[in-house]
Amino acid sequence: MTTTDIDDGLVVQGTGGGLREVVDRRHLLAMLVRKELRVRYRASVLGLGWSYVKPAVQFAVYFVGLGLVLRQTAIGDYAVYLFGGLVVVTTFSEAVGNATRSVVANGELVRKIFLPRELFPVASGCVAAVHLVPQLVVLVVGTLVAGWRPDAVGLLALAAGLLLVGVLALGLGLLLSALDVLYRDVENVVDLVLTVLVWTSPVLYPWQLVADLLGADSWLFTAYQLNPLTVAVELVHRGTWATASPGNLARTAPDLAARTVFAFAVAALLVLVGQRVFRRMSGRFAQEL
């Protein structure tokens, strides 16, 4: 046996098969998700019920402040519009924020045993998906009360919007969690960005206001429209708010189908880049932690 034969059989310690190995070891993923949920709601009276309380309180604050006090009447069915956007932004923020800290937070496991490191940011995304379910229940009930009549295109748009959030959060989670191991400032920067995230997409306001401010033909407005998170918010609006009242559909953003294709392409590219950076850096995780 030659030296080359030996070298070909070696695997760099701390690296694995990437996301494919996460799928193969989904039983470990399920264990990590259960662990995170147990830790989060330990000694809690409401437990998972907080998944309903937190978004409901956030929704109430924005609805009273913007919808009643500031008289936001430019948007029909404003409560449905607002909550649909909040579902997207809060889920994305939770997934990305927790994924960024996931490897550092599980430093003991990283140092002591080998398992696919990608499990940690993916598990954070799965926990956010668990918390998404009660928000969707509240959203569907609210839209039905407002007069929502689901249509095939709308349901497809709703599913596409939620899937886009998941793919986008996965790509950023992989990238940022790896960088956070080496540079702990990353999580602070992410917190700052997530704080203002709700204002970077048409969640609290109609997209027409941005067009009036920046100019409908300006490159800044084009960049705003091509933002994948903006596309995700508009897809959820198309799936819920757009058919709550007859006049809402005419106020949806144009060219949504083409921008959806572009947004998924960007999100998929982020997953590839995030996975590549994560795998290249994962061999140093145990040393850095």
TrEMBL record:
Residues passing through the membrane, by range: 43-66, 78-99, 119-146, 152-176, 188-207, 256-274
Subcellular location: Cell inner membrane; Cell membrane
PROSITE patterns in alphabetical order: ABC_TM2
Keywords for this protein: Antibiotic resistance, Cell inner membrane, Cell membrane, Membrane, Transmembrane, Transmembrane helix, Transport
Membrane topology listed for this record: Multi-pass membrane protein
Pfam families listed in its UniProt record: ABC2_membrane
Domain ABC transmembrane type-2 positions: 46-281
Family note: Belongs to the ABC-2 integral membrane protein family.
Name by which UniProt lists this protein: Transport permease protein
